[in-house]
Design a protein that fits this description.
This protein is mainly beta. The protein contains four helices and 28 strands.
């Protein structure tokens, strides 16, 4: 037997061994994730010099101020009409509030700053997106429990819906409710991202990162856009077949909804009124990263797209090959990280890209971007602060 043959046998044995291992990310959990990986051919990443996603040369985000907190991971932010407090959801399952005005510091003083004291509001399962309804109640997209409502005045938490009517006219459970918006007519629109529910990890927290990673890596299209009518209590699927549906926002006239397809690196538009009602279109395609939250500045007609992290060239390379993707996830201690996060700003009428902002500072993720009183509030998943910058 030649040395080449021996080498081939050794490589074959190693590959077989690795393929039989559970993925490193779920190696120490009680449950294993069972997904059939799909082939997906992403468009060429446009994040190149001279093209539309060239980062802002003025480093606009470097002018941001930081609000240090006594909690970690203000992923999404909700602001009532009076603006006296803001509310944010945390990965621990709780929702906290912070009174205004905020104590802000520049990045260079953030590590030495004393944290602002937040106020505990309530505990859910694993809240992701939050907003306020027309009566200033919190409406919560809870990935574990479903769509929730918290009456601030009564200090009462209730479940609005945790299931929907499927094509067989039977009830199916919502597995991963992600983001939510409320219209002027009180209709609620929300996303359900994947068929994989959050996993209770060894720390006692509901882990949403692993199901999210698997869904996008497997390129499965299990995401949905839904509506909930608070008067009739009907939960309706508006659109399905989405590669991880995520953030949602109304257009300035509330005639359509923008929502992020994180796994496809694009933003869809779904019409809820007018002659196009019930129709959808890809509004912005081939984003430079993985879109998370979306928000609209009604006064200026701008769509803010929070880029959780930039696209990874290696992931784009292996996406067409399900076997290779499945194998890569089983290499112990291999962690594939996205590139630098950012914010894409687009015109809500045409989809034209107006700006692409990144920061030279170490901001691990950007999950939400909320416009309020001439400022942009930026949420994240992994840090003990949120960021504020003046509108450009």
């Amino acid at each position: 037997m030649t040395q080449n043959n021996i080498l081939i046998i050794i490589i074959f044995v190693l590959i077989t061994y690795i393929a039989l291992l559970p993925s490193f990310s779920i190696m120490f959990l009680k449950y294993q994730i069972d997904l059939e990986f799909q082939s997906y051919n992403p468009k060429q990443n446009q994040n190149k010099p001279g093209e539309q996603y060239q980062p802002d040369p003025d480093n606009y985000l470097n002018n941001a101020e930081f609000v240090k907190l006594d909690v970690e991971g203000p992923e999404s932010i909700a602001i009532p009409k009076d603006g006296k407090k803001i509310y944010f959801a945390l990965k621990t399952g709780s929702i906290h509030s912070l009174a205004t005005p905020f104590i802000t510091v520049p990045r260079k003083l953030l590590d030495q700053a004393l944290p602002s004291k937040t106020e505990y509001v309530t505990t859910c399962g694993r809240p992701l997106g939050i907003t306020v309804d027309n009566d200033d109640n919190l409406i919560i997209a809870d990935s574990v429990k479903g769509l929730l409502k918290f009456d601030i005045k009564l200090n009462q938490l209730s479940i609005l819906t945790s299931s929907y009517i499927n094509s067989n006219k039977t009830h199916s459970k919502l597995n991963f409710v992600n983001d939510v918006i409320v219209g002027n007519d009180d209709m609620i629109y929300f996303t359900d991202s994947t068929s994989i529910a959050p996993i209770l990890d060894n720390t006692g927290d509901w882990n949403t990162l692993i199901p999210s990673m698997y869904t996008m890596f497997a390129s499965v299209n299990h995401g949905k856009l839904l509506s909930f009518n608070p008067k009739t209590k009907e939960t309706k699927v508006l659109m399905d077949g989405i590669k991880y549906s995520n953030g949602v926002a109304f257009d300035p006239k509330e005639e359509s909804i923008f929502f992020a397809e994180t796994g496809g690196c694009r933003v869809y538009r779904y019409w809820i009124k007018g002659i196009n009602k019930g129709k959808s279109e890809v509004f912005i395609d081939n984003l430079p990263g993985y879109p998370d939250g979306v928000d609209v500045d009604f006064s200026e007609g701008k769509l803010y797209i929070s880029i959780f992290g930039g696209r990874n060239w290696f992931v784009d390379l292996i996406h067409p090959y399900p076997i290779i993707k499945n194998l890569v996830l089983r290499i112990p201690y291999l962690k594939i990280k996205p590139q630098k996060p950012g914010i894409v700003v687009a015109d809500t009428q045409t989809g034209k890209i107006l700006n692409y902002f990144q920061s030279s500072y170490e901001i691990p993720t950007i999950t939400s971007t909320i416009e309020h009183n001439g400022k942009i509030m930026i949420g994240n998943l992994l840090s003990d602060f949120f960021t504020i910058v003046k509108k450009k």
